[in-house]
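Morning!

This is the sequence you dropped in the shared folder:
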Amino acid sequence: MISGMSIDYFPSSLEFVPARLNSLLKELKMTPSEFDQYADNHIFFFYPLTEAAYYSSGSESDNELERYAVSKGVIRQHPDKQYLYDNFGTTWFKNPVGVRDTGNPLKGVEDISSYKWPTAYIDDLFSHFASNDIKSEYLYSCGLQHLTIWERGFLLLGYENMLLDLYLNPERVNYVMDKITEFHVELANEFVKTETDSVRIGDDYGTQKALQMPPDIWRKSIGPRLKKIYSVYKGAGITIMQHSCGCITEIIPDLINMGLDVLHPIQPLAMDIKYLANEYGKDLTFFGGIDTQQLLPYSKPEEVRSAVRQCVDILGRHGKYIIAPSQEIMLDVPTENIIALIEAIREFRAI
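The structure's back. Tokens below.
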């Protein structure tokens, strides 16, 4: 099930980097809507104009959205058309393969007290999705609220500086994280107004093998601020998904205690799916699990089918699972494996 909904099959969701989806649509001769029906994608994802990283591919449709966001004063155009500034002033390179930041506006800045912090209380924050009849075409809607406390912090300060400041200059980094939290609490309030079913809060805490910081530092610096965002959604009865790449096993109990409903993504080469199912399967809905690092790019279609079966058996043991790859499907995944994935989901999705 998706948290808060009882259904008699496991829903599914396939996400792609823009370039791979575009090439696949051309190959299959489908529109995006036709592909969603073919692939049985059940979740409609939408994002606010503030999430410039979602429209920085450089495609004409994204460039059009960029111009719209600029006209609303949400982001700024960069002197070089290959880049754009998001609402926090971070520079992004327009990249169809995947988002990439190239500039940290507070890196090396000693006095940050005069920095102009953005607000989420702006008009037409979600107007670019107004034409989509979400409820009639999809089972579930999910807002994307990514680049929150940790990631936005190092996008502003620079990654090494952010890590050092946690230990050497906590007053500075706490000020930055507090300002980021204020913005995301505002954004959470705006998401609530959309009456979305869920929101996926994105903040990468893990590496392939462990957290990027000791868990006690996470609990002291990130956890209490993240809980403020969670509280907005818990008060509104909106399902909370948490996105974090990598291994975050050590803080999963903390997230559950804060009110987490859905854990995304489950990366089987970073976290043991059997352990997750045994320890947290009764508390969480798992989202992901089908490996994109080795399996989908390099294995044979029958191995993909077998992996889907395994994920359903293990992660779906308690009836709370969203069948999906562990990350976006990249350019290195062959079409035959994507088709095998879709066919296997159809075959094995029954609860």
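Headline: The domain at 18-55+113-348 is CATH 3.20.20.210 (TIM Barrel).

More detail when I'm at my desk.
O.
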